[in-house]
Amino acid sequence: MAPIVLRTVAEVKSWAAAHHREGRRIALVPTMGYLHEGHLSLMREGRRRADVVATSIFVNPTQFGPNEDLSRYPRDFDGDLGRCASAGVEAVFAPEPGEMYPPGYQTYVEVTDVSQGLCGARRPGHFRGVATIVARLFTLFRPQVALFGEKDYQQLQVIKALNRDLYLDVDIVGMPTVREADGLAMSSRNAYLSAEQRQRALALSRGLRAAQALYASGTHEAPALVEAVRRELRAADLREDYVEVMDAERLVPLSTVAPGQAARVLVAAFSGATRLIDNMPLGG
Ligand code: AMP
Fold first, then answer.
1. Shortest-distance atom of ligand 1 to CA 33
2. Which of 5, 29, 140, 243 counts the most CB atoms within 10 A of its CB?
3. Is residue 42 domain-resident?
4. Which residues line ligand 1 (CB under 6 A)?
5. pLDDT digits (tens, 9 = 90+) for 200-224
6. What pLDDT shows up at residue 237?
7. Per the domain annotation, does 241 fall within a domain?
8. Neighbouring-strand partners of residue 177
């Protein structure tokens, strides 16, 4: 069945109120659209964990920097509706920017510590925009469950902190990264890549897997693990934005992964003009 399309805040409120009245559990999957299997895996898991699934498709301007790709972010709304239908999504919230940010809008949510390194350091204001829109979507839908991808690992930690600190009481579910057969993490931004840039982009996942293999062979010092990733980026002639080994929850940099510690190796790099991110677990 085609999902119902909600365009306004008022429509979301009445849709959610009707389900809450009936005692149905709502799962929410926030997205920026141009949906792929990664997004659909979140929606399908939402169906398993709740009675109804809603998704939002909104390219949120406040999470883009002035020189980023807001105006050219890929869009395919009709195709997305079909994909949502196939994943069992009941409602799609697709507001115009002016619906979410009317004149006089002035409230922002900032999650401090976990927003600071990695993408937060390279994209000032990005996580403030993310935390703000997610907090507002939670307020509108009042979902019991919300699903996010580990692909955006720092974002997931920001949302967990937001949910905890504002007592939002949503069950935040982090889902594994869905990859293409050759290892490339699925991303709407992969659409920007030429065939040659896409081939070179495989160095991100190859480098992360090399770090995992090194870790498994007993090397737990961060500089050596980072170097394993860098070697692959250099070989593919990709420009590094960052490569870091961090504690998996607090997202603080580690010099060594302690025995039993859950850690994560995270990378951001440019293939051509396209900035790509990826990460994998170490230890834990
Ligand atoms: P986006 O549309 O890029 O803002 O992503 C919307 C949601 O889908 C976020 O929770 C992402 O982490 C998640 N997501 C994006 N790509 C993937 C992927 N390859 N695997 C799993 N989840 C993903």
1. 2
2. 29
3. yes
4. 31-32, 38-39, 41-42, 148-149, 151-152, 175, 177-178, 185-188
5. 999 999 999 999 999 999 999 999 9
6. 97
7. yes
8. none
Residues 205, 170, single domain; the answer is no
Q: What is the spatial distance between Cα 189 and Cα 53, in angstroms, rounded to a whole number?
A: 25
In this structure, is residue 153 part of a structural domain?
Answer: yes
Give the span between the Cα atoms of 67 and 41, in whole angstroms: 31
Distance from C-alpha of 269 to C-alpha of 271, rounded to nearest angstrom = 7
Q: How does pLDDT run across 126-185, given as a tens digit for each residue?
A: 999 999 999 999 999 999 999 999 999 999 999 999 999 999 999 999 999 999 999 999
pTM of the full predicted structure? 0.98
Catalytic site residue 220?
no
Taking only the tens place, the pLDDT of each residue in 22-40 is 999 999 999 999 999 999 9
| pLDDT of 1 over the 90 cut | no
Task: List the CATH number of the domain containing 212.
Answer: 3.30.1300.10
Determine the residue of 29, 35, 36, 39 to mutate for testing ligand 1's pocket, defined as the one with the most ligand atoms within 8 A of the Cβ atom: 39
Task: Give how many domains the chain has, as a whole number.
Answer: 2
CA of 151 to the centre of ligand 1 (A): 6
What is the average per-residue pLDDT within 249-265?
96
The three-class DSSP label of residue 37 is: helix
Compute the distance from residue 254 Cα to the ligand 1 centre, in Å: 26
The CATH code of the domain that includes 12 is 3.40.50.620
Structural domain of residue 110, as residue ranges?
Answer: 4-175
Domain identity same for 21 and 108: yes
d(CA 280, CA 41): 18
- Find tokens 């401090």 and name the residue: 112
